[in-house]
Amino acid sequence: MKRDYPEKPERVYYFGTCLVNMLYPEAGMAGISLIEREGVEVVFPRKQTCCGQPAYNSGFPEEARDVARHQLKQFGKNYPIIIPSGSCAGMMRHHYPKLFADSPEYQEMLRFSDRVFELTEFLVRVLQIRLEDKGEPVKITWHSSCHANREMGVIQDSKSLLRQLSNVELIELSREDECCGFGGTFSVKQPEISSAMVIDKVEDIRQTGTKKVISGDCGCLMNITGAIEYRNLDIAGQHIAEFLWERTHG
Amino acid sequence: MVKKTFSLQKNVSRFIDNGQLRRNLRFSMDTMKQTRAALFSDKSEFETLRKLGQSIRQRSLDKLPELLVQLEEKCTANGIRVHWAETVDDANQIVLDVINQHGSSRLVKGKSMVSEEMHLNSFLADHGVDPIETDLGEFIIQLAGETPSHIIVPAIHKNKAEIADLFHKKIPDTPYTEEVEELNAIARKILRQKFFEAEIGISGVNMAVAETGTLCLVENEGNGRMCTTLPPVHIAVMGLEKVVEKLVDVPPLMRLLTGSATGQPITTYVNMITSPRKPGEKDGPREIHLIILDNKRSKILADPQLRQTLQCIRCGTCLSHCPVYTRIGGHAYGFVYPGPIGTILTPQIEGLKNTNDLINASSLCNACEEVCPVKIPIPDLIRRLRNESMSNKGSVEGAGTKRALSEMSAWKAWKLINRHAVLNRLSGKAAAAFGKQLKGIGPLKAWTSCRTLPKFARKSMLDLADENGVSDE
Ligand code: SF4
Fold first, then answer.
1. Which atom of ligand 1 is nearest to the CA of B311?
2. What is the pTM of this model?
3. Across the interface, do A55 and B414 touch by the CB < 8 Å criterion?
4. Which atom of ligand 1 is nearest the CA belonging to B260?
5. What is the span of the domain harbouring residue B463?
6. pLDDT of A220 higher than 50
7. ipTM
């Protein structure tokens, strides 16, 4: 996705996402640390909630709009908004304007959307971050979330960060572009298809022989690691922000 | 032929554990994806072509009423008889009338999804006529008494051994063989005889050109050429959206169609049919009928967003790239059009009520939108139909059909929590609330059938941010 990137800002907003908040808080904090280390101040509005995607995808646009308006209020100043999730970023960047297409709030939403960046995209394109790997040699594999890939177009950014780590060997999946089967409410509305998909994904991960799968989206991670644990496999899932931070600080 | 009790969920349970089906699909899909990717390897060139395809289709739809009138005039002037059919019943009746006029009983048929939509074969069978399917894939599933499971490769769910077995059992004096060449030869021998005897040939139409009154038909086996030239009468059936304005619109669309469908720059046969046999000509049918079917399409056209559904050129590549289709196969979709295109088209033709939970056949991964050669925003249209299914104000037939109190109130609660930060935080313990909301949407056991439960963190990120003094402004 072609877009123009701003100069390095003094201050940014951080939208943690509800899954990070509840399930992967350390990953969220690691994202903040990575940004702050580059000399950028991070503001984390405490009244933020959910991007609204679950309702948006389930046939409840009115509910999604209400929740979107709530976020708009929490992120009122003209700072870039950084999100450690390709899916929530895609929602706020591409779907907010669609949700308000016929409303007087459209322009406001458009301006809001324009400020939205996925975390790795921001680290690479705006902060031009350079990473120094301090960790032990390790082999990992990478899972692309569909929305990071097809809505935000940031997979190359995420992978370029992993490739900056000199001791990390990235072994790619054979079907990296294929959905892991999470799809939010899809996983409970069509459980059998979703299960079939995540089982295949875990098998693909296992075939790489690595012990760690990294992703930029906690929805996928929750799904994939849940299926890995169910099979009792010795593979860990980790959000890219946490992985990058662990390997480069201290 | 609406299946009143259709349930995607039930169908999925029937098909998903069929390992042979899954392997057959995976194998074929992978091959199709690779050949397509090889042809469209230059991303920016493909994007330019796709935009052109999209604009051609959109222009055609914008001008559809005029173009259809023009098509009728041109065809009529060329000697093709044009018939309008509002419903599939009308269309079937027109076919039957033509058959009866000629007192024919020997029919051959080329591949046509519209004829599937009409359930033409079973209608004709009820009237004592049995058309022979001549496309190899269609021939196979006709032998098996099945329906197509893919819009380009009708028998994709079958592998060589299954076809070998079918030929051996269903065609008299046929030894069992898995040699593709031999299987082809068996079918060819039977079909050749049928072509010679045929009194009427039926075909579909890939696109019809308003400017010239030309019917375009692409295929790889030559059976389409036979069906439209050998028998004295040719009946072509098309959905009314298949018209394009000008002859110059054809090449880019053809390239997109064949490239997306089979990875071919062009098909082995490209038929462009403009008139019946003229005096002095040595071949071609003496009579051509074109049946133009509406079947709810004009209603779809009236909605500016849903209209994009009609841009479809039926290339089938959204099926081949769909992770859901690859797991369950075309028959699980219950109606004629499977895969992502079926997920958006079928509810608009059959109504949201009859198609029940079909709109849930997507994880919204966007793979279909990424490959669609005419840039139909399939995920957005799925969301739109989901909105309609939950709303009393929708315009699609059967709108509001999925309104269930438990789910409505789950989303109301979700909204409350997410509009009030205090509630959200308290419910940080949100975990508990999340679990509770989930019940109205789908059962928890669905999640745990192959996964462990998510582990909620003891301290939320909001808590950690407080502890670490992250700015709140
Ligand atoms: S929706 Fe697009 S990809 Fe799917 S069959 Fe139609 S044209 Fe092809």
1. 7
2. 0.95
3. yes
4. 8
5. 408-467
6. yes
7. 0.96
